[in-house]
Amino acid sequence: SSLEGLTLSTFWLHRNLLGGAERLRLSAEIAGIGGNSGGEDYKLSARFERPATFNPDTDFYALAKLEQLDEVNFFSRQLDLEAGIERIANQQRTYTAGLGLRAAETRDAFGTNRYTLLTLPLSAEFDYRDKDLDAREGYFAKASLTPFVAVSGSESGLRTYFDARYYKTFGTERPVTLAFRGQLGAVAGPELSEAPADYLFYSGGGGTVRGQGYQSLGVGTGASRTGGRSFAGFSTELRADVTDNIGAVVFVDYGYVAASSSFDGGDFHGGAGIGVRYKTGIGPVRADIAVPITGGGRSVSLYVGIGQAF
Questions:
Q1: Which residues pair with 268 in a beta bridge?
Q2: How far apart are the C-alpha atoms of 3 and 5, rounded to whole Å?
Q3: To bridge 7 with a disulfide, which of 27, 31, 138, 282 should be the other Cys (CB 3.0-4.6 Å)?
Q4: What are the angstrom distances between the C-alpha of 122 and each of 142, 181, 202, 305?
Q5: Whole-angstrom Cα distance, residue 261 to residue 257?
Q6: DSSP state of 173
């Protein structure tokens, strides 16, 4: 069996800062406690927001984040400073553009690397789900593009990531929901050995392929495994209401990782399982049991959380 660990987080949100509408959020998080996802991860962050800075629908934000990632295949300490704007077109559509500085030290199969990047994070989000934590109808899509210019320790390039989800429900008395998720990511520019380790892609675990080990699919094998420059993932779930408060789920996940940024010559793996949902006022409590459906492993993985898996 496997467990990816627990996450503890806390935050303080101050409104009406300096007598205005500004907001300041301070947060701290520890993840990977007692799990098999490497070591413990730490994050401290501060985010300042000023609504309606440029017009009624465009906010200004500034953030600072200090993070340590002790993952299965790499270790990273990084400092991010970023400022930008968030355009709220309506309740369902949001666009962001920022300018950032990232300084990091990473250690992976290629050794230790220190790099500094200037980044231009861009994103567009479309959220037409009926509920965030327990969607029954609608769709969600988010595209993120991050061009980066290497000041030192790497090469310039572009990181892209796309996440799309679709939901359709049939019946009324005991409704059944079909849910689909697709993910695509790529890093163009630097060679694999020179790319920032925390920009690369892995598959396996709760966010990609349940039933496969956390970050078990990358490039290479054993202790020399590293992330890939391209990634594709697909998940589907069949969700059924058993009673007014209890639901059951059957799911299948697949993931693909390649060393190239063009998705050539990679490997894939899959996992499948069943789960139970218990409805609460803040969203369903989720428990999933999954096993591999590719490869020779016979491990059983348990995933617990709040809200649907996607």
A1: 256
A2: 6
A3: 31
A4: 11, 22, 22, 29
A5: 10
A6: S
Closest among 271, 246, 269, 265 to 256, alpha carbons compared: 269
Pick the range with the lowest mean pLDDT from 34-38, 85-89, 147-151. Answer: 34-38
Strands (E), the chain: 6-17, 22-33, 41-55, 58-70, 75-88, 93-108, 111-119, 122-127, 138-152, 157-170, 176-188, 230-241, 246-258, 267-278, 285-292, 301-306
Tens-digit pLDDT profile for residues 64-83? 999 999 988 899 999 999 99
Residue with tokens 């380790």: 197
* Greatest alpha-carbon span in the chain: 61
Neighbour-count burial of 291, counting CB atoms closer than 10 A to its CB (0-12 exposed, 13-18 middle, 19+ buried): middle
CB 283 within 8 A of CB 134: yes
| Residue type for position 187 | V
Q: What is the pLDDT of residues 244-297, one digit of tens each?
A: 999 999 999 999 999 999 999 999 999 999 999 999 988 999 999 999 999 866
Residue 173 exposure: Cα atoms within 13 Å on the Cβ side: 0
Whose CA is closest to 208, among 177, 163, 248?
A: 163
Measured in whole angstroms, how far is the alpha carbon of residue 29 from the centre of its chain?
Answer: 15
Three-state secondary-structure class, residue 55: strand
Query: Percent of the chain scored above 70 by pLDDT?
Result: 90
CA-to-CA distance for 223 and 206, rounded, in angstroms?
22
Residue identified by tokens 């993932």 is: 233
How does DSSP classify residue 213?
P
